[in-house]
Amino acid sequence: MAADFVLLAEPVMDDPGSIVFLLSAATLRLATPLILSAMGGLFSERSGIVDVGLEGKMLMAAFFAAAASAASGSAWVGVAAAIAASEVLALLHGFACITWRGNQVVSGVAINILAAGLTVVLGNAWFHQGGQTPALDESQRLMPLFFRNAGDNILVYAALLSVPVTWWIIERMRFGLRLRAVGEMPLAVDAAGISVGWLRYRAVLLCGLMSGLAGAYLSIAQNAGFSRDMTAGQGFIALAAIIFGKWRPFGALGACLLFGLLDSIAIRLQGAVVPGIGEVPVQLIQALPYLLTIFLLAGFIGHAVAPRAAGLPYEKEH
Amino acid sequence: MSPSRKPLPAWADLALVPLINIALAFITIGIIVWLIGDDPFQALKLLVIGAVGSLDAIGYTLYYATNFIFTGLAVAVAFHAGLFNIGGEGQAYIGGLGCGLVILAFDKVLPAWAMVPLGIVAAALFGAAWAAVPAWLQAWRGSHIVITTIMMNFVASALMVYMMVNVLIAPGSMTPQSRGFAPSGQLPALMGPTLNYSIVLALACCVLVWIFLWHTPWGFALRAMGHNRAAAIYAGTNLKRMTMVAICLSGALAGLVATNELMGVQHRLLLDFQAGYGFAGIAVALMGRNHPLGVVLAALLFGALQQGGAELAFDMPDITRETVVTIQGLVILFSGALEHLPRPWLQTLFSWRSR
Amino acid sequence: MTGSAIELVGVDKSFGSVHAVRGISLAIARGSITGIVGENGAGKSTLMSVLYGLYRADAGEIRVDGKPVQITSPRDAIAHGIGMVHQHFMLIDSFTVLENLVLGAEGGLLLAGGMAAARAELARLAREYDLAVDPEARIADLSVGEQQRVEILKVLFRGARILILDEPSAVLTPQETDRLFRILATLRERGVTVVLITHKLREIMAVTDHVFVMRQGQVVAERRTKETDTHELAELMIGRKVRLKLDKAALQQGAPLLSATGIGLVDARGLPLLQDITLELHAGEIVGIAGVSGNGQSELLQVLSGIRPPSRGAVRVGGLEVDANYPTDPAEMRERGVAHVPEDRLREGIVAPFQAAETSILGYQDKPPFSRNYLLDNGVVGRYCAGLMEQFDVRPRAPTLRSSNFSGGNQQKLVLGREMVREPKVLLVGQPTRGVDIGAIEFIHRELVKARDRGCAVLVVSVELDEILSLADRILVMFAGRIVGEVEAARADEGAIGLMMAGAS
Questions:
Q1: What is the pLDDT of residue A133?
Q2: Residue A256 to residue A38: CA distance in whole angstroms
């Protein structure tokens, strides 16, 4: 069975079916960390806690996944460590924003910078490789399940699964109803006798969980180890995907896939000539997710309405 | 547990709380250093010596501080208007593009006394222009400026790579950088290989910003808007226009990083010259409580950290330049997000004292 | 006393130095509609907030159905069958009616079961109380009246048998108000106890069985509605206070300096905030606008001062004509000699972290002598502020002190001084003595009269009828966004004005 799939996966460049397959696989491969991160960010944002720190959580998680995996020899230990590291940052963000009602954006920016620095500091101290973790072999990574060259490890499937699960939690569970309510009008939630803070903490913890998986994917599934700044802005693209998807799970999925597709095309388009325009700069394609988000926010592509209470600390008046 | 809002005496508010915030940041990094297995006190000693222990070191420290002054002022001005400009990275980058373009175009025909001011103005204008887009979107379309400025940072990055690789690369060069600037486009050095006259410009900007914010009617209106939008409207201020002014000014200041890096040190246009200064500007502004004098002091501290950190990295191989980055993150955390943390303890302390 | 749904015994509540509720004892009969009526600041909303658990009483006891209970949060209140319909609805716009209903009482981790049960219960409530609303409708798509019905349903859904409504008709049209009253009558028939907080006497007479009149934190009277009328209630509401005797020179009315014709204003939803306002302000007179807050006075001030353009009609002042097509801004109005002391000094009139000197030039910062050659001269500003403080008795005489560190009265004097010292042609003043101590009140009133004697056209908006009666030469009464009456101050009849303020005449 595996052999058949391996055959199919051998690239035959002139066969359209093959190209579509490879392109889809590449899209999914690149979109997976975005999807995981975006689903986590969705919980946070829908609850009214703006999270600019998706990037930092992913980076920290990536580092700890590789480090723990290298140290223990087990990829699953790596995943657990990634989630734990991400949750620490998530709780920090929650502490600053919910309990201390600090500026949510500043907190997110702080976490990003903190992660960028700390990952290299710890990496250097523990592994002495200039911030990298030692290269991992197959037993320490999450390897592809069915298609050897398509990179479909378990986290890719987890990412795809996480979308309907996120949707279901938000739309069909009591927790989701309350979550959406607290992002729109925390006063109404408080008046109904529900704790605003505890709701938001749970949202932030869910965000940490998903960011942990996203980071783990980067270092022990997609690649074979951690290298400094390996997130390369994907946390911000996930944020852009949330906005582009109008704060809905399937919308964000679509945006992530779009961004993943653009990324996978970017390299192939290098040198390609578009009639009437000339050579399409690869940097333009790289910048497209950000440009599209700006257009969206400007109201030029439809209308994106953020959760009404997003970014506002909640203060009870007694 | 929620913080109360009783006011502390002014001196505690302005000086004590920030000092405690920084102290917390340093204690945290000290713990981290200790956890890695190094001696935090030894590290501190090496840091200080590395930063100010020789004329050369001081020169480097001041050179770094110059950049921090520019980006710190940029963030501070925006904060005074109640807005968060995280786009300093992109604005500094594009400011550099403008500066580079103008100098590469005219440096062989213009004398220094014309080229230098032109380069400075170009840096400021291009930085302002890059900031104008998110500013306009916030003022007229209500787009959240935080997100748009972050996005613009990435667009700037992509734009610069394109420009450097395809347009401006010096013929025959293997790395994406432009040809060197002619002497007319260079700022003379002040001390050592890096400190140059742009620090004079930076300090001049501090004075100008101070004058603008506290000694002009527009600065008055800008600060009023930052504190209380309803009162600003009542006073007849056009909020949209003021938003543009504040953010464009902010972008212009960030753009001036190019005068230090490109005109003063690198003498050419290259990639990533501004890396990290934009974000660090947030830390500098927060630590300096958004006041030009505070920004200078904070910039000196961060300059010392950067230089000392580099030296420290040589002596203690476990500690890298990223330690400085971590400290920056911690400062932003404690001075920005958790700035109210010390207050309840201080309030208890003060109420004991006043009994 | 059995038969009482609610009994309050000696309930007391203070906020700092403000004694909002003073030892109130009252009993509300079960299955009745009871009204609580009073002016702004009488304490009615505070009292009901204590009952609903939003505030904790400093002293006193609450009894529900004869048994003493502890109510420390809305949850407790709901548990005891007390529900509150607030003036500002606690509804989430993007949710459906059903989702709003079910929030907090979802009946399990999964929504599906709880929603089905809620839908059934909603249908039952709709039948029983004649309160039909489409469960799948989004709140944002409903009219205000329908939204209010959802609020009522929310409360009934939680099993409330005692319903408190806080100024329910404030946001309703007359037709919707009648509909509401029919609903309240149905609720009463079914044994629900209703408490209606309002300042509108017409409503009290139309729908209540009993009424309590509150004034300054106390219950001053209790009546059966059948045995009283609007005149008596108006008198009780306003009370017989000693009018501050102000020596005023005779009115020397001059030329009209500001005129507003047919001013209309609608909000973002198209609901009318001002309707057909026409008035003229002449030099040398004080025009007082009386009315309970929330009847359009704030919006009128915003239009006249240039903060908001009118949707209809025009304002003419100093050669400038302002209407919907030619809006203006406060700076321009200041140029034309219109000064404005805002109703809410903390929100608009001062910038709390600014020094007093800076606040003293707010709105005038770009004018000489403060600004010359584009530079602000802080020395001049400081001296100016010191002079202002001297002239208007602002204490402490410290131009560098933070504006928020001054007491309310001194802040007000500073703002007043700022607007008056430049001798404007027209002075618009909102709530001149709100939160101001007695000594400062006298001072401020005298300054306003001085301005009038100097030939200024003064417009004073106040919820304190006393203030209007002592200051104004002419009195206009506003209700529901219209001017419902105009009286010469010398011939003013408190009772008649009270009726107009309560929309009763």
A1: 80
A2: 8
Residues of C in contact with B221 (CB under 8 A): 365
Q: Kindly indicate the confidence band of residue C145, based on its pLDDT and cuts at 50, 70 and 90.
A: confident
* Contact at CB, A299 and B336, closer than 8 angstroms: no
Instruction: Among C307, C338, C343, C348, pick the best mutation site for testing chain B contact (most B Cβ within 10 A).
Output: C348
Distance from CA of C248 to the nearest CA of A (A): 44
Task: Quote the CA–CA distance of C317 and C297 in Å, as a whole number.
Answer: 19
**Mapping DSSP to helix (H, G, I), strand (E, B) and coil, where does residue B84 land?**
coil
Contact C340 B219 (CB under 8 A): no
d(CA C487, CA C212): 29
> How far, CA to CA in Å, does A67 sit from each of A55, A61, A127, A132, C405?
18, 10, 9, 9, 55
How many angstroms separate the CA of residue B295 from the nearest CA in chain A?
A: 17
CB contact under 8 A, A178 and C91: no
Look at residue B219 in the predicted model and tell me its pLDDT. 95
CATH classification number, A17-297, choose in 2.10.240, 1.10.3470, 3.30.70, 1.10.8: 1.10.3470
Confidence of residue C241 (pLDDT cuts 50, 70, 90): low
Find chains touching chain A: ≥3 CB pairs under 8 Å. Answer: B, C
* Full-model pTM: 0.83
Phi, psi of C261 (to 5 degrees): -125, 125
CB contact under 8 A, A102 and B2: no
Nearest chain B alpha carbon to C332: B236
User: Is A293 in Cβ contact with B151 (below 8 Å)?
Assistant: yes
Mutate to test the interface with B, among C376, C403, C406, C411 (most CBs of B within 10 A): C376
What confidence tens digit (pLDDT) does each residue in C419-478 have? 999 899 999 999 998 877 777 888 899 999 999 999 999 999 998 888 898 899 999 999
Same fold, C4-238 and C256-355+423-501: yes
First to last CA, chain A: 67
Structure letter (DSSP) for residue C199: S
Chain B residues touching residue A311 (CB < 8 angstroms) = 144
d(CA A24, CA A192): 46
- Which pLDDT score, from 0 to 100, does residue C233 have? 83
Chain C, nearest residue to B7 by Cα: C405
State whether B329 and A293 contact (CB < 8 Å): no
For B158-192, how does the pLDDT look when each residue is reduced to its tens digit (9 = 90+)?
999 999 888 888 888 888 888 888 888 888 888 88
Tell me: ipTM over 0.95.
no
Residue A165 banded pLDDT, cuts 50, 70, 90: very high
Query: Over the stretch C147-160, which tens digit does the pLDDT of each residue have?
Result: 999 999 998 998 88
CATH architecture of the domain covering B46-337: Orthogonal Bundle (1.10)
Q: Give the residue on A whose Cα is nearest the Cα of C91.
A: A188
Q: What is the CATH number of domain C4-238?
A: 3.40.50.300
Q: Is B163 helix (H, G, I), strand (E, B) or coil?
A: helix
Q: Which CATH superfamily is domain C256-355+423-501 in?
A: P-loop containing nucleotide triphosphate hydrolases (3.40.50.300)
> How do the domains of chain A map onto residue ranges?
17-297
Give the pair of three-digit tokens for residue A149: 């060259």
